[in-house]
Amino acid sequence: MTESGTIPPNANPNPERDPEDAPDDEYHLQGRRIITEDDLDEVFEDDGVEPSERYLRRRILHGVVLTLLVALLGAAVLVAFAVSRGDLQVPGWEPRPEARITCPPDTYKYPANHSFVTNVYNSTTQGGLARQTSEALAKRGYKIGVVDSKRINYYGLSAIIVSGPKGEANAMNLQRNIAGTEYVADERTDSSVDVILGSQYKNLVPAKKVNKKAGTLSCPRLEQQGTTPSANATK
């Protein structure tokens, strides 16, 4: 029999306490089991390959992949070079043939000078040339629009006459009034005509000598070279 107020040596002072609340040891921390190296070895079996051997295999794999990529790149460059030289034909890679630009072959009646708008540009270094020419054209009844300067990328002409399809007859009219011109087509949708004065321009054809019979446009460079200058040649 024990004395009143004393606890037996083997008695549990707190019978409801969880055994995990027991003091920590080297395998437990705050009631949680610590995973050790031995535990990991049981889960992940050793494949028997040394780390150095795995590293060597990885290096070999990387080398093979890099070699294949370099080979594919080199082959692509060689194919592209062969296609560009014409040694290799790949369906669908052929350049599209450019549409042949020709001088309009139609015959036009000579339109009235006042029936369309004429824009006059100076491409030379001679100051006031566009203004002087526009005034001379206005005296012949032409309806003058823009008077300004504009650069062109070819020389040796008195003027370049530019129009869209609706202005082809009007362009022919101006070619009859300015000798030594070159006709150039563009995509405008109205009947206006641009006159771009060049280095060889001197004066208008005398009014009494202007040929007002029906005729065609003049494209000297087309007739000589088999091509015609594009309207994109003007800037």
UniProtKB/TrEMBL annotation:
Which keywords, in A-to-Z order, does the entry hold? Membrane, Transmembrane, Transmembrane helix
Give the signal peptide range. Answer: none
Q: Which InterPro entries match?
A: LytR/CpsA/Psr_C
Where are the residues of the annotated region Disordered? 1-25
TM ranges are 60-83
Residues annotated as domain LytR/CpsA/Psr regulator C-terminal:
119-201
Superkingdom of the source? Answer: Bacteria
Name of this protein: LytR C-terminal domain-containing protein
Q: Which organism is it from?
A: Arthrobacter hankyongi
**Phylogenetic lineage:** Bacteria, Bacillati, Actinomycetota, Actinomycetes, Micrococcales
